[in-house]
Amino acid sequence: MSDVWQNLSDNLKRQVALYEEFIEREKDKQQALIANNLPEIEDITAREEQLILKASGLEKERLLWTEHIGRELGKAPEDLTLAALADHFPRLEEVRQKLEQVVGRLQELHKTNALLLRQAMKVVDFTLGMLTHQASNTYAHPRRKENDGYGKLHLLDRRI
């Protein structure tokens, strides 16, 4: 049974390394978002797609090892958390902690990047609204009231 545990441990270590690579891509993407570098964002996204494929393969492999361990322990694979497995095989505790840390950092970066993307989309929506004279704008002029005779703020004012 030690070979199976070792294979699971190796798989988890490879997953940690892969998620660390994801972190680097997310950092790169963050800089590209700030710089509004669309070609770089596309390139990073393509590289992330490759990493996702690798992660999927590692996850399938992990599930196979977990199924085998589950049969050995008499438990269903979906009932075996990494913390529970670390109780049976203490050498997994270190990789469990690393995996938890790296996934936490990745989630934080992803959350920040998602916020940057939402803000960029708001700017695009606002600009399109100004150019197309949409009936409802997301943003209002801070010094004008709605009924002051000027109407909505547009980039190109047709009254001129």
What does this protein structure show overall?
The protein is mainly α. The chain has a domain at 2-108. It has helices spanning 2-35, 38-73, 82-88, 92-132. It is elongated and about 65 Å long.
Q: Estimate the strand proportion.
A: under 5%
Shape: elongated
Percent helix, as a range, is: over 70%
With helices defined by DSSP (H or I, 4 residues minimum), what is the helix count?
4
Count every beta strand, where a strand is a DSSP E run of 2 or more residues.
Answer: 0
The overall average pLDDT, rounded, is 85
Low-confidence stretches: none
- Please state the CA-atom Rg, rounded to the nearest Å: 25 Å
Biggest sheet layout: none
Order of helices and strands: HHHH
Oligomer: single chain
Which structural class is indicated by helix and strand composition?
Answer: mainly alpha
Separation of the first and last Cα atoms = 82 Å
